Fold each of these.
Amino acid sequence: QVQLVESGGGLVQAGGSLRLSCAASGRSFSSITMGWFRQTPGKERDVVASLTTGTQTIGTPYYRDSVKGRFTISRDNAKNTVYLQMNSLKPEDTAIYYCAAARFGAGWQNAYWGQGTQVTVSS
């Protein structure tokens, strides 16, 4: 089992910044894909950004088009924590943000999930 605990959500004005953190504990994988998803009422949970790491980053991070150039995903292996730096926030970024982790290649359908953290961007 992998336990994920998110933090860093909150209320911010449009144009502002927030940094989300996701601390992982429990089972470890030699290569793991960690991602941030978001969900608004009545809509599906969509991936925002993801990053695959082993001893080093594997491939390049993925970002959905709407956040490219504004959001940055990173991981601190020593702290077993993944971050999502969100800059130039827009009201449409308002959502519950979830952290997910999956063994590399296993797919998100086999992911472990955090409890979610609310991000609200006011106009």
Amino acid sequence: VQLMESGGGLVQAGGSLRLSCAASGSIFSTNAMAWYRQAPGKERELVAAISAGTYYADSVKGRFTISRDNAKNTLHLQMNSLKPEDTAMYYCAALKSEGAATMEDLLYGMDYWGKGTLVTVSS
């Protein structure tokens, strides 16, 4: 399984970006997928996930939307009202097992990772 992110870039505060994660291999609509980010000097954090339902970190709730196009095996993250504190490398990840993911799965158990796409939000 390979995951490849795209869509990052430089945007002004208040702007929008749409990240995509193309999955190749055995990833199906029943595999949980998620977006993470890591800012310089900070730990990686879970931003949003899609499994039986969706999950959003409090810091992005109402601004970011996670979705998946099962026909194209692609995960998206629509990011609106971007803030300088959203600046980070964004990664997508997928769980190997099918079915609903637990929070423990999302935090510690993701099996496949992309290489990331950089998002920079200027003030």
Amino acid sequence: VQLQASGGGLVQAGGSLRLSCATSGRTFSTYTVGWFRQAPGKERELAAAIRRGDSFTYYQESVKGRFTIARDNGKNTVYLQMNSLKPEDTAVYYCAASPVFSTSLPGLRYDYWGQGTQVTVSS
């Protein structure tokens, strides 16, 4: 599975960005998809995820109420809508996918990774 992440950029605090994770040749709805982020000097963390099958969603506590993850199965794309962005959201964002249905989205091993897209939020 090849993933293509896009949509990063530079935005002022309080602004919005929408990230896209697209794949081709596969039915993306059969994959659990996560958006990870890694800030300089920090470990990679799962920001949000959407489960295969029932589209159950997970959000890291720091992004709840500001980020929304959603699928467009017709376009084989998963989006991460990021609103009310803060400087601490600055990171490289990666999308990743797993064919597994899991009750723990943070604990899931994601087998397929896209390239990162940089998100920079200025204060």
Amino acid sequence: VQLQASGGGLVQAGGSLRLSCTVSGRTFSSYTMGWFRQVPGKEREFVAAINWSGGRTNYADSVKGRVTISRDNAKNTVYLQMNSLKPEDTAVYYCAAAFGDTIAVLTTLYDYWGQGTLVTVSS
């Protein structure tokens, strides 16, 4: 399974970005998909996850109400729409895939990872 994340960039505080992650190599709809983020010197932290059908989602408290995760199984792609961005959202964002239908928030429960895309929010 290969994951390719894209969509990061530089945005001003209050702005929006949409991250995408395209998956190849396996049946995309068999996987729960998650987004995590990491800043230098800190552990990778959970941002959002969505189950295989898109019917269930989970969000970190720090992004709840500002971020929406969605997926298009026909396109093997998961999205992270981020609005009202804050400087503290600056991080490298990673997409990940976990086989099965359980919404996982722990990095250890994910089987595959993308390469990361940098999001920088200026104040």
